[in-house]
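Q: Here's a chain of 280 amino acids. Please give me its 3D structure as tokens.
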Amino acid sequence: MLSTATALKKIDSVAIGGFDGMHIGHQRLFSHLGEYGAIVVIESGFANLTPHQERERFSRYPLFYYPLENIRHLEGAEFVRRIREDFPQLKRIVVGYDFHFGKNRGSSCHDLTDLFDGEVVVVEPVCHHGDSVHAHKIRAKLQIGDIAGANAFLGHNYTIHGSVIAGQGLGRRALVPTINLHVSDFLLPKEGVYATLTRIDDEEHYHPSVSFIGHRVTTDGSFAIESHLLDGEVSVERFGAISFLGWIRENRKFESLEALRCAIALDIDTARRICGQMLL
């Protein structure tokens, strides 16, 4: 990635938008950027698929963040002037068909052709199996446990990360050992059990895993995000990331720890199969 000073001097094309998720529709916009392209993120504070700098994992282009609170008072012409000043070599602006900007969202993508003296590329809706791709649809899929659908729209596996915390200790004693995470800012998928890949600390690779999100209704009722590594225990210190591959089952209460243990064994078998298929 270019340094900020170098980038501002060389950038000749920008894609502008919220870009939460960095999904396949966003990637279509980025495909219109050249060698010296950049991404301008209008940061509303509501991004929860790729919050904060998480977006940077999904593009080779430098990202520049414009907090909405700092620019929402600008009229359309003032906003374009601001972009022009920030990127003096700018020749092309790329936006989606539903892009609005300026005070009270008063200007649309069509106004850019009058306000900007360079090329304006307006990208039409990107569809997957006839359904237009939008971040709100990805959120809806995650909230019903449709991991396959969410990942197809994203173009990558939905991933959350957070700090490692102590669990209740029951897994290691009576069930299976797990890594427990505290996750903030990310949208959590529906409560249940998932086939996943889990990365810990600064490791470069992910471990095949089975993960649980939800309230421990069979034991103490507390909320947990925990992951059991299928390839054995490893030393964990600070950080964990869970990448979702597929839905396994609903969260439910079992009559005994033995019944829960049997269900977990089945979950592990299912996760091994899904992970094996995904990693072929």
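Q: Can you summarize the key feature?
A: The first helix runs from residue 4 to 10.
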